[in-house]
Amino acid sequence: MAKISVIETGGKQYVVSEDDALSVEKLDGAEAGGKITFDKVLLLDDGKSVQVGTPYIEGAKVSAEVVESGRAKKVRIIRFRAKSRHLKRKGHRQPYTKVKIAKVYV
Q1: Contact in structure between 39 and 27 (CB atoms under 8 Å)
Q2: Do 42 and 15 meet the contact criterion of CB atoms below 8 Å apart?
Q3: pLDDT in tens for each of the 106 residues of the chain?
């Protein structure tokens, strides 16, 4: 059974295991093909035992490879008030970094 861990990055928590690909909040200085290490590991499960951090597990790391950086699809925000001729439109594209989990270290 593969090692499963919970990491924290960008104010969010992700359940990851080896060879997973996920999109996280934009990581500064991350270029495509580069390596990155997540050291905020909250939980680690190796199939036999489960370690829970308080809040993080000391010495546990998750290494990943940066696949790409980009911006997500546009989210459209519309404010409308009936019978007042009031209509506002806004849009937002959230930047992200797509990573592929390489290894979970204890």
Answers
A1: no
A2: no
A3: 678 999 999 999 999 999 999 999 999 988 999 999 999 999 999 889 999 999 999 999 999 999 999 999 999 999 999 999 999 999 999 999 999 999 998 7
How far apart CA 106 and CA 103 sit, in angstroms, is 10
Domain that holds residue 10: 4-105
Instruction: Report the number of distinct structural domains present in the chain.
Output: 1
Contact between residue 43 and residue 13 where contact means Cβ atoms under 8 Å apart: no
Task: Quote the DSSP letter at residue 47.
Answer: S
pTM comes to 0.84
